Recover the amino acids of this structure.
């Protein structure tokens, strides 16, 4: 039976003329040494603040927690980062959480690349604190801590949806010629809105459910209410919810306010009407900008 399934000799002779060879990897002749912790972010439009709200949130988180000497890197596409999502934090081996790991399994001499969920632990190690030991998470009381969850949900829901709608969308012709790896904005809205928007095709349609029926008027109406409530809640306080020190909510609020102020008039005007939000964003912006090496 073995001879019955053997490869014919003429085919073996033909394949022998095209042997499969493997070569060692080509190492780069030059590389930039990692001299300090470096945050990989989406490119900024101006200055050193990323134009991506998620990257900017972590920039603000690092700066408002008082971490100094962090460098920035803009030339890495999301596809080249961990999990395909920016930002990532590249730290030297001496500052890595795995610095005491034995040789086997230890990161290489280029240090370790941390995803976003690993950044808070690294910051705690840098500052010599344990954030998990504070049950209030930096807020003045338990009620403020619980309330912060509602504001996070509002910012990452309705406000984020309005921010997506304010971004210019490429034409259908351009999308056909240059397809993007990013999902269409309607898919993003379906993930962040609650309840999610209905599909373009219904249950009685012969076409499978696809697309999203986006109610732009309703989203923008909810967005205006959200910005009004955010302004009223901030009032004249230094930090949101009356905290004496910046909290993760402040980092998130700054990221959204900064991106909204640099977006189209549809969403920007709602923020500029609130003087306290504009002044607060301007003050925090200087703190975040000065917190990085660039």
């Amino acid at each position: 039976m073995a001879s019955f399934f053997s490869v014919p000799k003429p085919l073996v002779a033909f394949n022998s003329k095209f042997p499969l060879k493997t070569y060692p990897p080509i190492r780069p002749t030059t590389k930039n040494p990692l001299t300090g912790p470096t945050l990989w972010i989406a490119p900024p439009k101006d200055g050193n603040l990323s134009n991506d709200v998620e990257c900017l949130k972590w920039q603000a988180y690092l700066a408002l927690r008082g971490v100094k000497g962090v460098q920035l890197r803009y030339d890495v596409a999301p596809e080249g980062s961990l999990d395909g999502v920016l930002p990532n934090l590249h730290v030297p081996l001496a500052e890595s959480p795995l610095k005491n790991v034995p040789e086997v399994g230890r990161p290489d001499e280029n240090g370790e690349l941390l995803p976003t969920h690993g950044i808070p632990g690294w910051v705690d190690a840098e500052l010599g604190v344990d954030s998990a030991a504070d049950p209030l998470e930096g807020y003045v009381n338990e009620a403020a801590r619980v309330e912060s969850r509602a504001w996070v949900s509002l910012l990452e829901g309705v406000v984020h949806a309005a921010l997506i709608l304010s971004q210019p969308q490429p034409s259908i012709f351009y999308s056909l010629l240059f397809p993007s790896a990013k999902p269409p904005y309607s898919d993003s809205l379906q993930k962040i809105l609650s309840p999610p928007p209905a599909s373009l095709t219904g249950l009685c349609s012969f076409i499978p459910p696809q697309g999203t029926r986006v109610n732009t008027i309703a989203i923008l109406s909810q967005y205006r209410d959200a910005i009004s409530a955010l302004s009223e809640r901030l009032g004249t306080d230094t930090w949101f919810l009356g905290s004496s020190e910046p909290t993760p909510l402040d980092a998130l609020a700054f990221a959204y306010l900064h991106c909204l102020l640099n977006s189209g008039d549809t969403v920007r005007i709602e923020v500029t009407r609130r003087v306290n939000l504009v002044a607060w964003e301007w003050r925090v912006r200087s703190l975040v900008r000065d917190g990085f090496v660039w």
